[in-house]
């Protein structure tokens, strides 16, 4: 797992995204921000579909792996593919966590924790602002 700030979003892409995205979404995907619990558009969404990266549109999570973790953020027990997301050691805010970024464009998505349900035991806690739902 990579450690430290490995974000590879170029300055050119950051400028483009600053113009295309609303300020909260930009802060989340480019500056590793987070939305308030229970405030995102997908935390309690039950619509079937595929969750795509808001920056590059690559598939990240299928609604079939989404579950109610009680955390207030959309939670999934696995990504659609092993390379869909990259895990990065996060030592910000005086704690050690595992950040999750898009495997294609490196946009910040959220964090993964080892308190999820079977079959993986993982909880990918993802910001609603970092994904778009492509409904089935």
From TrEMBL:
GO-annotated biological processes: protein repair; response to oxidative stress
State the superkingdom.
Answer: Bacteria
Catalytic residues of the enzyme: 125
- The answer to whether the entry has keyword Zinc is yes
Gene Ontology CC terms, in alphabetical order: cytoplasm
Fetch the PANTHER family from UniProt. Answer: METHIONINE SULFOXIDE REDUCTASE (PTHR10173), METHIONINE-R-SULFOXIDE REDUCTASE B1 (PTHR10173:SF52)
Q: Which cofactor does it need?
A: Zn(2+)
What the record says about family reads: Belongs to the MsrB Met sulfoxide reductase family.
Q: How is the cofactor bound?
A: Binds 1 zinc ion per subunit. The zinc ion is important for the structural integrity of the protein.
A molecular-function term among this protein's GO annotations: peptide-methionine (R)-S-oxide reductase activity
Q: Which residues form the signal peptide?
A: none
What is its EC class? oxidoreductase
| Limits of the MsrB domain | 14-136
Transmembrane feature ranges = none
Enzyme Commission number, as recorded: 1.8.4.12
Catalyses:
L-methionyl-[protein] + [thioredoxin]-disulfide + H2O = L-methionyl-(R)-S-oxide-[protein] + [thioredoxin]-dithiol
Protein residues bound to Zn(2+): 53, 56, 102, 105
User: Native species of this protein?
Assistant: Pseudohongiella acticola
Keywords attached to this Swiss-Prot or TrEMBL record, sorted alphabetically, are:
Metal-binding, Oxidoreductase, Zinc
Under SUPFAM superfamilies, the record lists: Mss4-like
Q: Which protein is depicted?
A: Peptide methionine sulfoxide reductase MsrB
In terms of PROSITE patterns, this protein maps to: MSRB (PS51790)
NCBIfam families in the record, alphabetically? peptide-methionine (R)-S-oxide reductase MsrB
């Amino acid at each position: 797992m990579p450690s430290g700030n490995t974000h590879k979003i170029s300055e050119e892409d950051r400028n483009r995204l600053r113009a295309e995205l609303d300020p909260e979404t930009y802060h989340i995907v480019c500056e590793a921000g987070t939305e308030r619990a229970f405030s995102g558009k997908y935390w309690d969404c039950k619509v079937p579909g595929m969750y795509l990266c808001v920056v590059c549109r690559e598939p990240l999570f299928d609604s079939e792996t989404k579950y109610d973790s009680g955390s207030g953020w959309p939670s999934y027990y696995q990504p659609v593919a092993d390379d869909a997301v990259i895990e990065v050691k996060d030592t910000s805010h005086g704690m050690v966590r595992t950040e999750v970024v898009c495997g294609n464009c490196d946009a910040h998505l959220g964090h993964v924790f080892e308190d999820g349900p079977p079959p993986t035991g993982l909880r990918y806690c993802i910001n609603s602002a970092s994904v778009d739902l492509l409904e089935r």
